[in-house]
Batch of 3 targets.
Target 1
Amino acid sequence: EVHLVESGGGLVQPGRSLKLSCAASRFTFSDYYMAWVRQAPKKGLEWVAIISTSGTTTYYPDSVRGRFTISRDNAKSSLYLQMNSLKSEDTATYYCAREGPRISFDYWGQGVMVTVSS
Amino acid sequence: DIQMTQSPTSLSASLGETVSIECLPSEGISNDLAWYQQKSGKSPHLLIYATSRLKDGVPSRFSGSGSGTRYSLKISDMQPEDEGDYFCQQSYKYPLTFGSGTKLEIK
């Protein structure tokens, strides 16, 4: 079955940067759009970014546009999220997700925690 | 942005009961609606996409329906493993948005 494993989370001070990675396996990574979705503690889900198969097209919500950058390396079957100018409200578990039919998310990683605090 | 109003916030059901969760988008989304289940401490799992299409492997007691600005998820014959949080998500327009979630517990 599809396997997605996130890494790179941790505790970071406000204003600093962090880069998350997602290693994908057991499917043809380059055939799928990929996304990041986050969930603040005890809260709901928030979509963070999505990237096309080639990496040339990306979309973000206003809450992270200009601070976060999604990218991918198809040769390495890896997805990334570069997060700059982090704020306390970015504290969340970040999930890597594969785009499924009709821009649903049909497979999710186990998530990685990011805590932004001084 | 399309706001997704989900209700109820929580509900409890007995084993074998049928429950429904509703999602009201702030504008029409042309059936671009998915439902997810998230068990405690786990990542979400896709149940339904395109309003009513079950993901492979999802039990047939889950069903989805709706159109326009009113969508619902129905769980028939409630089972212990159905306990968890449920979220709707629209994919009609960016930014992709989720409902606030429904906590479903066994009574």
Note: The longest strand of chain A covers residues 18-25.
Target 2
Amino acid sequence: GENVEQHPSTLSVQEGDSAVIKCTYSDSASNYFPWYKQELGKRPQLIIDIRSNVGEKKDQRIAVTLNKTAKHFSLHITETQPEDSAVYFCAAPQWAAGNKLTFGGGTRVLVKP
Amino acid sequence: DAGVIQSPRHEVTEMGQEVTLRCKPISGHNSLFWYRQTMMRGLELLIYFNNNVPIDDSGMPEDRFSAKMPNASFSTLKIQPSEPRDSAVYFCASRMNTEAFFGQGTRLTVV
């Protein structure tokens, strides 16, 4: 089955600095890689995703990169702001198992003003 | 669409009681997931359905947990009997092809 590993589990950055979270996956058939943000007391919500036919995707201050050969993908947040403080989850689907979506363990990001 | 709707939002029950959590997925979505979230274990997949059929229930912790999806617009997760260690936030999510949309979650407290 799909195994998704996420690092680090916690990340503290100074406001304005960059934050990078990395995930590895095991199912080479996976071709869609979403990132979710969960603010305290709220539900996880999609912030960006990438498909395996591209290596990088950017949306304002967030970007995701994908290395299919190495089976890892990363979330990059630039010019961090206090509202970026949240828990971030990566995920990968297991297409052979009927679209099962497996999440990483999450990264708690704290942006210090 | 109102999104994925879960009920109740909060549930406090005594150990040994039966608990039923409910979920209404987004209309047209063919996959439904039940997740459990705790500080210690993160976001765990309990079970998921494709076209109302349970595909993988390997995440269900034990026989006290059961889930059903009688039709495309409704699913339940039942715990009987409940135990204090079942206290967690339970999320339901649905998807069509790619993005999974989460409900607001049910915060369950078993005392």
Note: The longest strand of chain B covers residues 42-50.
Target 3
Amino acid sequence: DAKTTQPNSMESNEEEPVHLPCNHSTISGTDYIHWYRQLPSQGPEYVIHGLTSNVNNRMASLAIAEDRKSSTLILHRATLRDAAVYYCILRETSGSRLTFGEGTQLTVNP
Amino acid sequence: EPEVTQTPSHQVTQMGQEVILRCVPISNHLYFYWYRQILGQKVEFLVSFYNNEISEKSEIFDDQFSVERPDGSNFTLKIRSTKLEDSAMYFCASSAQGLAGNTIYFGEGSWLTVV
């Protein structure tokens, strides 16, 4: 599986935007970029995914670099409930599993 | 919003005992998965299941583990003879399709403690 690199931790203030980066320089042309998050003592929760174009949904936006070697998850207005570990995961078209890394621990300050 | 449900939420079992963890995937989903997370560690893939057979399994999923879809709604993970190192949170998940662009939905987990 192609590898992703994320900062171990980030901090944000409530109601401010948060930009969570992810590097995936060995991404292949058919890998999808998925973002999941895990709140304390809960199961992973889907956030957003994309292939080449930027994506928006009710939870977040995903900005994908033109060369696809990096992406950024954008939370437009962080809330305390957004404090979680955020995982950037590449998923191959031929594979069925999600391979979780260490992720980024996001702390949101009131 | 439809969700994956798991039971029990917490189970304590003695080493060597058999354990069955149960899951009800989202209705009309076709792909089912089990993942686990040992306390303080990463979420790890165990197995995926489609069309009543295992489609992929990890090296963790040895002969002590088995999965079954006994009826149209349940999906179970059996650990035949539990070991201390099986203590973990086990997550069931499902997706409509198995393609890379499909979303996988996770349950809240079953916390297994082996003593």
Note: Chain A touches chain B at residues 30-32, 38, 42-46, 49, 51, 87, 91-102 (CB under 8 Å).
